[in-house]
Design brief:
By secondary structure, this protein is of the alpha/beta class. It is about 30% helix and about 20% strand. β9, α5 and β10 (about 170-175) form a beta-alpha-beta unit. α4 runs parallel beside α9 (about 255-265) and α7 packs parallel to α8. The radius of gyration is 20 Å and the shape is globular.
Length: about 260
């Protein structure tokens, strides 16, 4: 494409987001990547109050799926009360709306195993079927709509109340951590994200391993306490909160984020 006034090729944008994009012509490549305007937002958190840049912050939601959060799903079929895992729905609904209003990405990472399980190792199958006598990953659970977290199945869908459909950014994972053998890191870096507000289930399993790996990769990690939950015993929650504040990042609550965004505006 040529600009008729200058008779030179107009720059071609190469990148997924403006802050990570090159401008390319046949004889020149501009790799400066114009910086986004700083948008500081101060949040009440533990162990300290923090200020984040909203232009580099994303909400990362982990595994708010039917198999973990809905009656008739896999966990419910095993006799587990999924009520605790539904508690984050309300806070997340508010946070999602606030992120949309403030031009902050919402990134969903959800289990979705291949039905042939060729992306699953024996140790992961054992974690979900420790006796070898239960329904295996990817298989239909009799009497339910679940095919245990199989990609494209009802059990792998986000719960109705916050299901984004085709909206936001969707990532399928097949490990407890969303950063292992997965595209999450590449997606976030292309979006120019450095800070993560993390919610979802289960707090002591997929949420915690995701947060730990994000911290190891250099992201600023903030656990949103009331936007995450688990069906595990209370001492597991206490351990997660203790270790996040001690080692891996910060803990805040959804209202603190809403208040911070409102004050910044």
């Amino acid at each position: 494409m040529t600009d008729p006034k200058t008779k030179t090729a107009a720059p071609h944008a190469m990148g997924a987001a403006p802050s990570t994009t090159w401008q390319v012509t046949p004889d020149h490549v501009d790799m400066t990547r114009p910086a986004r305007a700083l948008r500081p937002v101060t949040l009440k958190a533990e162990p300290q109050t923090i200020t984040v840049d909203a232009s580099k912050t994303a909400l990362l939601i982990v595994d708010m799926q039917n198999d973990f959060c809905t009656e008739g799903g896999w966990m419910h079929s095993r006799g587990i009360d999924v009520t605790p895992n539904r508690a984050p729905i309300g806070p997340l609904k508010q946070l999602i709306a606030a992120c949309h209003d403030n031009d902050m990405p919402v990134v969903w990472v959800n289990w979705g195993v291949r039905k042939d399980l060729l992306n699953i190792h024996p140790s992961l199958r054992h974690a979900h079927n420790p006796t070898g006598l239960e329904t295996d990953l990817g298989q239909p659970v009799p009497g339910t709509k679940s095919e245990i977290i199989a990609k494209g199945s009802w059990g792998a869908e986000v719960v109705d109340e916050i299901n984004p459909g085709d909206g936001d950014y969707q990532i399928t994972k097949h490990r407890f951590s969303a950063f292992w053998d997965c595209e999450t890191d590449a997606v976030l870096r292309n979006l120019g994200v450095t800070t993560l507000l993390i919610g979802g289930v289960n707090m002591d399993q997929c949420v915690m391993t995701t947060l730990e790996d994000a911290s190891f990769l250099g992201y600023d990690t903030i656990l949103v306490e009331d936007a995450t939950a688990t069906t595990s015993p209370a001492y597991c929650v206490q351990s997660v909160l203790y270790n996040v504040k001690l080692l891996f990042g910060f803990v805040t609550r959804s209202q603190a984020i809403l208040d911070g965004l409102a004050a910044a505006r």
